Predict the structure.
Amino acid sequence: MSQVAAVRKPSRPVIGATAVAEAGATDPPWLRARRDEAWATYQATPMPSTRSEEWRYTDLSRKLQLDELVVAHGDRGPGAAAILPDALRRTMEQDRDSAARIVDIDGKVVSVELDESLARQGVVLASLRDAAREDDGDIRRLLATRAVPASDGKFPALNAALWNDGVYLRIPRGVRVERPVRLSRWVSRPGSATFTRIFIVAEEASQLSFVDEILSPDFETTTLVNTAVELFSYRGAQIQYVSLQRLGRGGFYLANQRTLAERDSTLDTLNVALGGSVGRVDLNASLLGPGAHSDMLGLYFGDADQHFDFNTSQDHVSPNAHSDLLYKGALDGSARGIFRGIIRVHEGAQGTDAYQTNRNLILSDDAIATSLPNLEIEADDVRCSHGATVGQLDAEALFYLMSRGLTRGKAERLVVLGFLGEVLARLPMGGVVEKVTNAIVAKLRGV
Amino acid sequence: MDDAPILKVAGLRAKVADEDLEILKGVDLAIKPGEIHAIMGPNGSGKSTLAKVIAGHPAYEPTGGSVYFRGEDLLDMEPDERARAGVFMAFQYPVEIPGVSIANFLRTALQTRLEDGEELDLFDFQELLMERMEQLEMDPSFAQRPVNDGFSGGEKKRNEILQMAVLKPALAVMDETDSGLDIDALKIVANGVNTLRRESPDKSVLLITHYQRILNHIIPDVVHVIVNGRIVESGGPEVALELEARGYEEYRKAHAA
């Protein structure tokens, strides 16, 4: 990710009605109508400003000029998979075991590989664009309606209007996919705006893990990647979703993620933010049935002027559900980390177990961490806790490690890795731990 | 055997780094290879400060005198350089390092002792670690636990001895390693030190303690009494026994500030 891509002249439409029409050109009528509706919602919704609590620390008026972006349509053609960028190929080669693999370049799926035995068991993995065209009924019912609808806000509306492609994954009842399904994404165009959707349904008692990794070169101009993630776990199902955000500098990563966990299902997420200049993730976990469980993990490591903003909510709609959030971040240089989280225990959600922890490690005088945990409880028989810490490298710990022969740099590296590693240890997915650890070590070499 | 001292402390003065509080007021000490020295003293006498100044703890600032280790000026070296040169301090209060396993920590510590480009043999390392843990009656699962995280007091002290046994320093400074240990744990710790010495008779030990008890298990060559930042008496093991019988009170009176 060291090369800097050159700025090109816009050859595609800017964000506007024309782009919406173009995005929906090959869509079935119901989907075109949904895009138009979303576009109307987008236009009617004011741009979030720092006056709103949820955007107080991320000033879009300074960080994102939407009208300067060019909408990416990923027009590389069908042969694109054969000429994958080296950086993407390298990271894909590190993924030793995969049940399935899907590659997306500039917002368009260029290849889908699915283990044949899984296909025989009824697992469906496809480009979302293709899947929507052949709609199985569920897409029409659920896409941008229940999880990340346009009505959720400015960016959910924009994504619902402009999404170009994405992932459709369905695991049939009782099928357990042991190895991860991997999405490898690459963004190449400076100044582009990519709109992608990830739509995953795990039917009753099925199981899957999904790794969504995104990379790009460094950009001289702000380059937007907007992702809407809709995850549905039906009764007794298990989903683990991991996002590895490794964009180059100049990247602006903006994700709206929603997990809907039904009775006795498990829906865990891990958001890893390492790259880009700005990363903003809105994650809502809804616990919709008794016995539902969501582990919500986050890891961020910012340096230079990187800015990471996480806005999470844990919605306990049903009684007797469990959610446990742990977000940990290390911040160096003049990086900024913001965590704002809320646990909402709805009326009647008795027997709720909900926890929320955010811990920050500050590595330089200019780095800033802001942590805003919150609780909103409308039931009386619940166990909830929230906690936040912002601390510096412990001088005593550094001395301890140095007294065993480790240089200051090595000692710092070990403390930071240990601190962040706690998050990875909670979701030890094949390849993810090594990959994230290596990426952290690479960033730490500058410390 | 070379008769030159491995550690030579001369007229050492030191204060708390952030305050104008002098703690060491001229300490003289010479330890030869293979010798075990014990330093005994009451609370506040400066015995732990001496250990920390030797190890390079940033909370203390040397203000005079010198410390030479194998002829090198120790006070001029960073803590990690001192460690790689062969100085080890067993902490009185070992520090918790969450998320870093003992195995990973020790592997990294050994790796830093190798030349650039030289790689630690992981098989040999594993073998050494397991052998040392067995000697210290530690369960093998210990190796995967985060350093001192959630350890009991006794486990922490044992972990210090484990590190010493793996790193095999030329000079081990033991800062009140015996405090807070029951007799069984004390024997295991003493056994760890004695094993190291049996394997390499030229290893030196500076044992800092409040109590005579541990000296029944690790027999010192020389016992020093430190009071108010100065060594006021040095002699054989009998000094410790006298001290145990008479207490620190008369030393304290004789050497009041």
